[in-house]
Amino acid sequence: MAVDNEVYDRLGETWWDEASPLNVLHGSITPGRFAYFRGVLARRLGTEVAGLRALDIGCGGGFLAEEFAALGCQVTGVDPSPVSIGVARAHAAGRGLRIDYRVGAGEDLPVADAAFDLAYCCDVLEHVSDVDRVIAETARALRPGGLYLFDTINRTHASKLLAIKAMQQWPLTRLTDVAIHDWDMFITPAELAGTLERHGLVPGEMTGLGARARPLAVLGGFISARRGRITYGELSRRLDVGRVRSTAISYMGFATAG
Ligand SMILES: C[S@@+](CC[C@H](N)C(=O)[O-])C[C@H]1O[C@@H](n2cnc3c(N)ncnc32)[C@H](O)[C@@H]1O
Asked: Which residues are CB-neighbours of 65 under 8 A, at least 6 positions away?
């Protein structure tokens, strides 16, 4: 099954809309992953983050770009979806945030060599056609000692059940009617660590990112959102996504440029 990345142009106008399935990334996933990244930043690059040059690879509507910009980072956001980039630009301007958004792909980043202290790629690696090239490009864009942050989806039975069956196939629970994910494109932590190492990025920690709500509440939330009883933003908040022990579904972590 081919991933339908065109969905980010079709639905791209709705990234910030509470009722949009794309907003699932925002409600608790953005706060959950950003809290972890903030901690890694402080440990690895020190508490003074204002002025750090940050590259957001596959920035979508700019959920994380705005978080890093609000910290004072100089953020460049890259995404192949022109609709998403347009929405991200307009939203940042509405908040008075200066973010340099560019249309481009992770496999061919429109940025100079060694231009960034920090690069991050969140919920994107499982969408790209050439992970190896995206990581090679990321390594090229980072300065020596720079930090790479990521989250992505593991390739396990559990991820097939949640990310494929529940989120995109079962009529009662699915988020959209299109193939936003292809299980074969999910990446195990060991595969990602190997790819990072091949390109001179030294893997650090990897840890789980997942719902902390009870499984029945998660299931009920998906059904309520599908039926239009709650928004996808509300669903996301109810999931209470954050750091969890298991890496069986999604995981996040960091690496350092050698
Ligand atoms: C699930 S969204 C994640 C958006 C954003 N990173 C976030 O977490 O809010 C996946 C994004 O990856 C982008 N994408 C797809 N193929 C890509 C590629 N080859 N390089 C960079 N981004 C890509 C899509 O356009 C989309 O915006």
From this structure: 56, 59, 75, 77, 88, 92, 99, 101
